[in-house]
Design goal:
With 377 residues, this protein is α/β, with parallel strands linked by helices. The longest helix is centred in the first third of the chain and has 32 residues. Helix 2 runs antiparallel to helix 3 and helix 3 packs antiparallel against helix 5. It contains twelve helices and eleven strands. The strands form three sheets. A five-stranded mixed β-sheet has the order 1-5-4-3-2, with helices on both faces. It has a three-stranded antiparallel β-sheet with strand order 6-7-8. A three-stranded mixed β-sheet has the order 9-10-11.
Length: 377
C-alpha cells in the first residue's frame, strides 16, 4: 500500500535503499512472532510430519523472515515507480498487517497513480510464480522441509498480490480502480469517494466473515479477520480525510497560513534562559535564531524537550537549533502543497518563510494541518 502522510520517527530503522529509510513499526514484532509460531507449530508439522521440533522452528523462522523481505520488495517497487513519476519517498514502514510506502504527495495523473498502484501486486505475483517454479525444479533433490518453505513463500506471495488487487481502497486494487475512474471521468474527487466507499464495504464484509467464523468456533481465524477489516476500514477513512485536506489546499499559498509575528533569539543564551525569558512570555513555539542581523537557525519547543532538565543551564540555543539550509526555506508566494511536500521530504515540521533574503514568517506542519482540517470540516 502507499500512503501520503506525515513522516514520523516512530519505528525501528532497518536500512536505506535508494535514499528510502525502511523501518519496522513496533506492532511488526507481534505478527512476526505469531506467523513464526503458526508455521512452526501448525503448518509445517501438518504438511511434513515426523521431523524434530527444532527443524520446524528453523523452517518457521526462515519462512517468516523471507516473507517479510518479500513485503519489503513489494513496497520498494511502489516506491521506485513513484520516484520515476517525480514523487519523493520518505520511508517504508512494515507494520502488523503488511507495509506502507510514505509518499510525499499523491500522483498528479491517473496514469501515474495506476502504475504506482499496480507495481506492488504484480511484483508479488511474479515473485510467487518464480518461487513456485523453483520449488518444482528442486523438489526431487532437496530436503522436503526446504521445498516446503519455498512452496509456502510461493503461494503466500501470489495470495498477497491477488488480495491487494481487490478494488477496495486502501488496497492497491482500490487505487487501481480509483485511477481508472479518474481517467474515465476526469474527476479525482469522485474517484476517491467511490473507491473509498468500496473499501468500507469490503472491510465490513471481512468483519462479518470474521464474526461468522468466531461463532462457528474458529476463534483465532475469526479474530484476525475482524482486526484486518477494522484496520482496512480505518485506513479507508484516513485516506479519504487525507484527500479532503489535500484538496482544500488547492490555490492556497504559504503567505495565507504563515505566522508573521516572530521573536528572534540569540544563539549564545542557554535553554533555561530561552524558557524563562522567551517561552513563558509568548504563545510562540518557534523562534528564529539570529547572530546580529544574520539568520543562522531555528529553535522550537521540540528541541527543548530533547534537553534534560539538568543540562538546560549549560546547553545553548546554538547547541540544539536546526541550522538554516535550503531545506528549511520557502517563499510567501510558494504553493502551500509544495511547502508541505518539502516538509515531508526533509522530515521537518516547520519552515522559514523568506522574501528577498529577509525572514517574514514561519509555517508549521501542525498549524497548517489544523487550519486545513477546519477548512475542510
Amino acid at each position: 500500500m502507499q500512503q501520503q502522510k506525515k513522516q514520523g520517527n516512530a519505528g525501528v530503522p532497518l536500512f536505506r535503499f535508494l535514499g528510502i529509510q525502511v523501518k519496522l513499526d513496533y506492532s511488526w514484532f507481534i505478527i512476526f512472532a505469531l506467523v513464526t509460531w503458526s508455521l512452526a507449530a501448525g503448518y509445517f508439522p501438518r504438511q511434513f510430519p515426523g521431523l524434530d521440533s527444532g527443524t520446524y522452528w528453523m523452517a518457521g523462522l526462515a519462512a517468516s523472515l523471507l516473507f517479510f523481505f518479500s513485503i519489503i520488495l513489494h513496497e520498494l517497487m511502489h516506491s521506485i515507480v513513484a520516484m520515476k513519476s517525480g514523487i519523493q519517498i520518505g520511508s517504508i514502514t512494515l507494520f502488523i498487517f503488511g507495509g506502507t510506502s510514505h509518499l510525499s504527495r499523491e500522483a498528479k495523473s491517473p496514469g501515474a497513480e495506476f502504475l504506482i498502484a499496480v507495481s506492488g501486486p504484480l511484483t508479488s505475483i511474479v515473485l510467487g510464480l518464480a518461487l513456485w517454479g523453483v520449488s518444482s525444479a528442486v523438489r526431487d533433490g532437496t530436503s522436503p522441509i526446504v521445498v516446503a518453505v519455498i512452496s509456502y513463500l510461493a503461494w503466500i506471495n501470489i495470495f498477497l498480490g491477488l488480495f491487494n488487487l481487490v478494488p477496495a481502497f486502501p488496497l492497491d486494487g482500490g487505487r487501481v480502480f480509483r485511477a481508472i475512474v479518474w481517467w474515465k471521468t476526469g474527476n479525482p474527487a469522485y474517484a476517491i469517494r467511490l473507491s473509498t466507499d468500496m473499501g468500507k464495504g469490503f472491510a465490513i464484509l471481512i468483519i462479518a466473515l470474521g464474526a461468522v467464523q468466531i461463532f462457528a468456533g474458529a476463534l483465532v481465524a475469526g479474530v484476525w479477520l475482524v482486526l484486518i477489516g477494522l484496520f482496512l476500514r480505518s485506513m479507508a477513512y484516513a485516506g479519504m480525510h487525507q484527500f479532503e485536506i489535500s484538496h482544500s489546499m488547492e490555490n492556497m499559498r504559504v503567505k495565507h497560513v504563515m505566522i508573521e509575528d516572530l521573536v528572534s533569539v540569540p544563539p549564545d543564551i542557554t535553554v533555561d534562559r530561552l524558557i524563562t525569558d522567551y517561552l513563558f512570555h509568548t504563545s510562540l513555539r518557534e523562534f528564529p535564531v539570529k547572530r546580529g542581523d544574520d539568520l543562522i537557525g531555528l529553535v522550537s519547543l521540540d528541541h527543548l524537550y530533547a534537553v534534560g532538565r539538568d543540562a538546560r543551564s549549560r546547553t545553548t540555543v546554538e547547541d540544539v537549533m536546526t541550522p538554516v539550509s535550503s531545506d528549511l526555506r520557502v517563499g510567501p508566494d510558494d504553493m502551500l502543497s509544495d511547502a508541505l511536500e518539502k516538509m515531508n521530504i526533509s522530515g521537518v515540521s516547520r519552515l522559514l518563510v523568506m522574501e528577498n533574503g529577509r525572514l517574514v514568517g514561519i509555517i508549521t506542519k501542525g498549524g497548517v494541518l489544523r487550519l486545513l482540517e477546519l477548512k475542510s470540516g
